[in-house]
């Protein structure tokens, strides 16, 4: 089964930027939708952004639009999440997830493969 590994998290000042990466272990990645979710301490896991497997159609949560950009490079089996103008409330563990379908879904239960998560902490 494909495995996902996130990287790129860390500490950043408010207003700064980070780029997260989600790398897949197998080549079937290209036809699958991949999404980023985040989970702040004590809160539910929520959808951030997703990118489709065919055509690369993207969707984003309201809080992400205009600040976050999702993209994919199927040649290296990687999906990226570029985050700009970061806010303290963006602090969370960010997970990437894959579903066996080319369309993006916003519900976590629609995704069957998850990475281990990467911590993003935005400092004031």
How would you describe what is shown here?
- It contains no helices and 11 strands.
- The chain has 124 residues and is mostly beta strands.
Question: Which terms summarize this structure?
Answer:
124 residues; mainly beta; 0% helix
Number of helices: 0
Task: Give a count of the beta strands, DSSP E runs of length 2 or more.
Answer: 11
Output the helix-strand order.
EEEEEEEEEEE
Compute the gyration radius: what is it? Answer: 13 Å
Write down the overall geometry. Answer: globular
Distance between the termini: 40 Å
Q: Please estimate the helix content.
A: under 10%
User: Which residue ranges are poorly predicted, with pLDDT under 50 across at least 5 consecutive positions?
Assistant: none
Task: Report the structural category.
Answer: mainly beta
Strand percentage: over 45%
What's the rounded overall pLDDT mean? Answer: 94
The biggest sheet, with number of strands, parallel, antiparallel or mixed sense and barrel status, is: 7 strands, mixed
How are the SSEs ordered, and which strands pair?
Elements lengths: L3 E4 L2 E4 L4 E7 L8 E7 L6 E6 L6 E3 L7 E6 L4 E6 L8 E8 L13 E2 L3 E6 L1
Parallel strand pairs: 2-11
Antiparallel strand pairs: 1-3, 3-8, 4-5, 4-9, 5-6, 7-8, 9-10, 9-11
Short description:
This protein is mainly beta. Helices cover 0% and strands 48% of the residues.
């Amino acid at each position: 089964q494909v495995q996902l590994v996130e990287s790129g998290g860390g500490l950043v000042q408010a207003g700064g930027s980070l780029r997260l990466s989600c790398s897949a272990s197998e080549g079937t990645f290209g036809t699958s939708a991949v999404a980023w979710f985040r989970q702040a301490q004590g809160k539910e896991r929520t959808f951030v952004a997703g990118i489709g497997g065919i055509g690369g159609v993207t969707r984003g949560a309201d809080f992400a639009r205009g600040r976050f950009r999702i993209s994919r490079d199927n040649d290296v089996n990687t999906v990226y999440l570029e985050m700009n103008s970061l806010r303290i409330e963006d602090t969370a563990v960010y997970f990437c997830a894959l579903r066996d379908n080319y369309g993006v879904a916003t519900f976590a239960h629609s995704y069957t493969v998850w990475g281990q998560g990467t911590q993003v902490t935005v400092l004031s």
